[in-house]
Write a structure and sequence with these properties.
106 residues, single chain, four-stranded antiparallel β-sheet, alpha+beta, 29% strand, two-stranded antiparallel sheet
Amino acid sequence: MNSFTVIKGLHDSEKTQHLKDLFTWRRTKGMKEEVARKYTLQVDVRANKHQIRRAVEELFPKVKVASVNTARMNGKTKRARTKVAGSTADWKKAVITLKEGEIELL
């Protein structure tokens, strides 16, 4: 698999933004530095952790990945003013943690 086909894009949700905001406000309260080094990506469903790590390190040469966690997300059932229900596509989420001392991804 190509690095450009493995990573579909950045998954920026309210939950990830809330964690980043919480970290900046409570830095002095002893919150872990690890939260600031985590990024959530939308990746190909067929990609494994090794391919995701390799793709991130190829696309961002100055970044070293410490760990990769993945989760399969099921599509949601949608109904748009009809009796026939459809659904959104299933997708895969990857949470990558950068090594300590690394620059930010974006």
